[in-house]
Amino acid sequence: xxxxVNKLISSILQILLxxxxxxxxWAVSSRRQTSFWNxxxxxxxxxxxxxxxxxxxxxxxxxxxxxxxxxxxxxSGSDTAASEFNGLGIAALPAALVYAFFNxxxxxxxxxxxxxxxxxxxxxxxxxxxxxxxxxxGLMHGVMFFAITGALTALLIIIFTGAIGWFMGMINEKxxxxxxxxxxxxxxxxxxxxxxxxxxxxx
Length: 203
Known about the structure:
- The protein has helices at 2-29, 36-40, 53-71, 93-124, 126-142, 146-149, 151-175, 181-199.
- The protein is mainly α.
- It has one domain (2-28, 49-199).
- The protein is globular and about 50 Å long.
């Protein structure tokens, strides 16, 4: 129970922290044109570009899970975001779900696909905007591993997470009318998988 409460509190703080800069930016630049939720992409997907959306989402999720089976053993024993669930078993599932969807996935989707991608795309076009956010997303997840696992593993993690970030950005903008809900779901499922691996000490 203590872990669940800690994750709930941490999630609220993370969401507020990651949403602060986008909220200020919106208030200064776009408050009169649209709501913050629409501006950041926390909105319904709609139907205009929905054809093929769930196929893409399923493919990215399956691809992530398969590649994770190769990547996770490389960081086995390292201190990762899911390490706090090591060996806790099914009792940790509620806390793991909060961690997966609200402590990490939602804040990161707000800042990377909701803010950086949309703002960079507005100035530089979607291809460059998506490349920028996915590169930064990959670097955020991989740079810390240079000193822990070595350069090769760190580069693999950067490429792996960056590629996932690129596909999530593409799905949101090209298949889901700019909604970040698809990438939030993909991201949350991916984090849940990593937490489950830690909970049952599979790697």
